[in-house]
Q: What sequence folds into this?
C-alpha cells in the first residue's frame, strides 16, 4: 500500500481493498492497453501537473 501511504510495502493492502497496490497499478495499466507501470505513472504525473496541481482540488482534504 505504500503507493498511497508511504509504508514501503507496495504489495500489501493491509486488509483494505481501497489501498493502492502494485497489482492495482498493473490492472490500470492493462486497462489502457499493453502498457507498463512506468508509462502509467508518467501519464498520471502529466495529468496531475497539467490538470490538477494548480486547481483547488489539489489541496482539498480527502476526508
A:
Amino acid at each position: 500500500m505504500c503507493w498511497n501511504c508511504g509504508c514501503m510495502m507496495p504489495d500489501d493492502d493491509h486488509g483494505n481493498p481501497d489501498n493502492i497496490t502494485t497489482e492495482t497499478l498493473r490492472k490500470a495499466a492493462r486497462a489502457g492497453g499493453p502498457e507498463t507501470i512506468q508509462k502509467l505513472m508518467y501519464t498520471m504525473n502529466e495529468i496531475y501537473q497539467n490538470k490538477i496541481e494548480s486547481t483547488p482540488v489539489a489541496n482539498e482534504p480527502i476526508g
